[in-house]
Design goal:
The protein is of the alpha+beta class. Helix 1 packs across helix 2. The model has no long low-confidence stretch (mean pLDDT about 90).
């Protein structure tokens, strides 16, 4: 008999970025831009990626880790306010096993030096999956990567 469980966690990661809101928002919205920063493990192999950035649109990212195990992220966009807010729900699978379901909200605020971006996630880890903080750690890596991407672009813009 399988034991079913649900462990809840909420975390928020804020970041001040030296790039305009339009550039930071576009890094989430444009499929080619997002592919450049949306990975927390460079050594993993991309198997599939798609992004339909609109309310009701979906995103899918399948990668294989260094042991060949597939990790699948599937999201559905619930709310998009250009230059202000993105809300999406997503689940994660290891192989064929769903390990979590989440609601993520990203807000963008213009500042004199660029943008303040706040990423908030409400996650439910399923059926005994022990995360040990790796979701937050992986998300912090993603936030570091988007910051490097938009700031690099900002420094090369004319």
């Amino acid at each position: 008999m399988t034991k079913h469980s649900a462990m809840h966690e909420t975390f928020a990661i804020g970041r001040k970025m030296r790039a305009p809101v339009s550039r930071v928002f576009a890094a989430w919205a444009d499929p080619e831009a997002k592919r450049q920063w949306f990975a927390c493990h460079d050594e993993w192999v991309s198997l599939e990626y798609s992004l339909d950035f609109r309310v009701g649109g979906q995103e899918r990212n399948r990668v294989a880790d260094s042991d060949g195990v597939p990790h699948t992220y599937e999201a559905r966009y619930l709310d998009i306010v250009p230059q202000a807010r993105i809300i999406y729900a997503y689940d994660m699978k290891l192989g064929e096993t769903r390990i979590s379901a989440s609601l993520a909200t990203i807000t963008f605020e213009a500042t004199p030096s660029g943008t303040t971006m706040l990423f908030t996630e409400q996650v439910v880890f399923l059926d005994g999956y022990a995360d040990g903080g790796s979701r937050r750690q992986g998300t912090e890596i993603l936030v570091d990567r988007i910051q490097a991407y938009v700031e690099r672009d900002a420094s090369t813009a004319h």
